[in-house]
Design goal:
The complex is a heterodimer of chains A (457) and B (166).
Chain A: H1 3-8, H2 14-25, E1 28-30, H3 32-35, H4 37-46, E2 53-57, E3 66-72, E4 75-81, E5 87-91, E6 106-108, E7 112-113, E8 120-121, E9 127-129, H5 133-137, E10 153-157, E11 160-164, H6 172-176, H7 179-187, E12 194-196, E13 201-206, H8 209-217, H9 223-226, H10 228-233, E14 245-251, E15 257-263, H11 270-273, H12 279-285, H13 288-296, E16 297-304, E17 308-312, E18 314-315, E19 322-323, E20 325-332, E21 337-347, H14 352-365, H15 371-385, H16 390-393, E22 402-404, E23 423-426, H17 431-445, H18 449-456
Antiparallel strand pairs in A: 1-22, 2-11, 3-4, 3-6, 4-5, 7-8, 8-9, 10-11, 12-21, 13-21, 14-15, 14-23, 15-16, 16-17, 17-20, 18-19, 20-21
Chain B: H1 3-21, H2 25-29, E1 32-43, E2 54-64, H3 65-75, E3 88-100, E4 106-118, E5 126-139, E6 142-152
Parallel strand pairs in B: 1-6
Antiparallel strand pairs in B: 1-2, 3-4, 4-5, 5-6
């Protein structure tokens, strides 16, 4: 099983993988795996091209010819809407000599012409123009074989468009599994759904993608320390120690997870401080169980493995708080760097002044200048800074170099009364993080000879 | 050209930069009008035919005096980890052009700001460069910053966060 891994790496042995496995069985994770360059190379080969990654929200492409350019780790992707309303995705690279075809972040075009030699492609990716084509190549040039290369898989749920480079991957819906139920609460809670405000924020931080993903998906424990300053100032609603506060961490399949904090009673501002005009819409679109959860919720935060996280909090910059939905992609730029892509989404049917306030709340909390974001990035950077040395990097674990995921391990059982799908653990636990590690390890060590064969065809 | 005005505003911008460099944010607030509008729109890569590459629908900062004051107060809290140990930072302000406003108690200025920040032992400096468009108003005999728009050059920021002000 591990012969594959050995082929791709120089020094990681079967014994090292066995030690990782043994550590995980004790709710530990060897620290060296976080930023090890060989592990990163394996992730690049075995995880990123085989999993579903978020590309765009449908509200970013409104009209025929609208396009956005995105990245799936190192693969440039061009998404464009056709006259038929269908959004297609291609490798953003000219089929002639491989030039990065469309250099703009977004816009509207009838065709895409490569500036290098002048080849032109339409909304369907077809090669429709070759400069001096018939003169130079003759009429026999088979243009149909030289269209833009489509992403092998492109699927969407509730406006969220995902891509996958593996033609044999399971469907997006199957991959998301019970996450769909929680996505409905976040994205399908009104007939019109959510819309992206403006464009995504992008910035590069010193961090490893596994930690940033885990920070949102499985680590509400960090909030009380990392973000203490915002609680002290009242930017984050203060709930600690308050009666009736209840948190659940929900373990889902494929390394996904959700954390929900709710109140046992109906909060004075139910439905996460959303405008009252939306409440009947929520009750119409959601099941009674989903609607009740949203009514009592204060924060929902989670992620879709490997690189998508989300948070639906309540924040404000001047006292009053507002709800928005933040989706973010952790685009790995190597073992030590992540480019963060962060979208702010707000209910399309919310009144415009509420949207304005909610957008400002996002900028002030989870944008790059956000008061919560500032301290998160500082912490991720500190972990990377301390992870390059001999002691942390020792693969034989001679220095007791384990990261600790013991919270709730063997002590906390799932709460059978929790109304949503998945395994819902009460309180602070590391259950989602442990499940992320399991799936990560499974993909990293999977025998994918079958897929390799099919790629060679 | 109004030399006195040019000097007054240039001096204002230099003093402001010094306060920001020295983390004297409370003193910095004294330079701001209570009616302040402070915005740093997102910059994108866009073809010329699409028009402006400055996106005001999404910003890095979209602030009033009250929201800036709150950001400042946070930086003084013991648990604002990003501010303690403090990073070392400088605001280099240059290309200052001052024009009189529509009324004698207002004026506007454009300038270029380069912000460099060093954190811990990290080798690379955080770096942001942008063009400011400011307006000023004289309030009780003192110039105050009434509005600021900063158009940063970067479409992808190479700063782990924006705990500093531009």
């Amino acid at each position: 099983m591990l012969s594959d891994c050995k082929g791709a790496t120089a020094t990681i042995t079967e014994d090292h993988f066995r030690k990782i496995r043994e550590a995980m069985d004790q709710a530990l994770l060897p620290q060296w795996v976080l930023t090890d360059p060989e592990i990163y190379a394996l992730e690049h080969e075995k995880i990123f091209p085989r999993t579903w990654q978020f590309l765009a929200h449908e509200s970013e492409l409104k009209n025929p010819g609208d396009f956005v350019t995105r990245w799936m780790v190192d693969d440039p992707v061009l998404l464009v809407k056709g006259e038929d309303g269908v959004i297609r995705a291609f490798l953003n690279s000219c089929t002639h000599r491989g030039t990065y075809l469309c250099a703009a972040d977004s816009g509207n075009r009838r065709t895409f012409t490569c500036p290098y030699h002048g080849w032109t492609f339409n909304w369907h990716g077809d090669l429709v123009g070759v400069a001096l084509g018939n003169t130079l190549y003759g009429a026999e040039l088979d243009r149909s074989a030289m269209g833009l290369r489509p992403l092998p898989r492109l699927e969407s749920v509730y406006g969220m468009i995902f891509g996958n480079l593996d033609p044999h991957a399971m469907s997006l819906r199957e991959y998301l599994g019970d996450m769909l139920w929680y996505f409905e609460i976040l994205l399908k809670r009104t007939a019109e759904g959510m819309e992206v405000i403006g464009v995504p924020h992008r910035w590069v931080v010193e961090a490893n993608w596994k930690l940033t993903y885990e920070n949102f998906t499985g680590d509400p424990y960090h909030v009380q320390s990392t973000h203490r300053s915002t609680v002290e100032l009242g930017i984050t609603p203060h709930r600690a120690g308050e009666d009736g506060r209840m948190g659940h961490q929900i373990v889902l399949t494929h390394g996904h997870g959700v954390n929900i904090t709710q109140l046992t009673y109906v909060p004075p501002h139910p439905y996460q401080h959303t405008p009252e005009s939306l409440w009947p819409l929520f009750e119409q679109s959601l099941s009674p169980v989903q609607a009740r959860l949203l009514k009592h919720a204060s924060v929902l935060v989670g992620g879709v493995f490997p690189t998508l996280s989300f948070v639906s909090p309540q924040h404000g910059t001047e006292g009053e708080v507002f709800n928005y939905l933040n989706f973010r992609v952790w685009r790995p730029l190597g073992p030590y760097k992540v480019e963060i892509w962060s979208w702010c989404l707000i209910d399309k049917e919310a009144p415009s002044d509420y949207k304005q306030q909610a957008y400002r709340a996002y900028v002030g909390s989870f944008g790059p200048s956000g008061t919560l974001e500032q301290d998160d990035t500082e912490m991720w950077s500190r972990v990377v800074q301390a992870s390059r040395g001999h002691m942390v990097r020792n693969k034989n674990l001679a220095y007791n170099n384990f990261a600790n995921y013991l919270m709730g391990y063997g002590r906390v059982e799932p709460d059978p009364t929790f109304p949503g799908p998945g395994q819902a653990y009460p309180g602070f636990v590391d259950a989602v993080s442990r499940s992320i590690h399991q799936y990560w390890f499974e993909l990293l060590t999977a025998d994918n000879a079958a897929e390799v064969m099919s790629h060679e065809l | 050209m109004n030399y006195e005005l040019q000097l007054d505003i240039t001096r204002f911008l230099y003093c402001e930069a010094q306060l920001l460099d020295h983390h004297q944010y409370l003193e910095w607030l004294d330079l701001l009008s209570k009616d302040l509008r402070y915005r740093v729109p997102v910059r994108v890569t866009r073809e010329r035919k699409e028009g402006s590459d400055v996106v005001y629908e999404m910003t890095y900062f979209d602030e009033t005096y009250a929201s800036l004051e709150r950001r400042v107060r946070r930086l003084y809290v013991k648990s604002a980890w990003v501010a303690d140990p403090p990073p070392r930072q400088h605001h280099l302000v240059t290309n200052i052009l001052v024009e009189p406003g529509d009324t004698p108690d207002t004026c506007r200025a454009s300038s270029v700001v380069l912000v460099l920040r060093s954190r811990g032992s990290v080798e690379e400096l955080d770096r942001i460069v942008g063009e400011r468009e400011d307006t000023f108003r004289r309030e009780e005999g003192q110039w105050k910053l009434l509005s600021r728009d900063v158009r940063v050059d970067e479409a992808v920021l190479h700063a782990i966060n924006l705990s500093m002000f531009l």
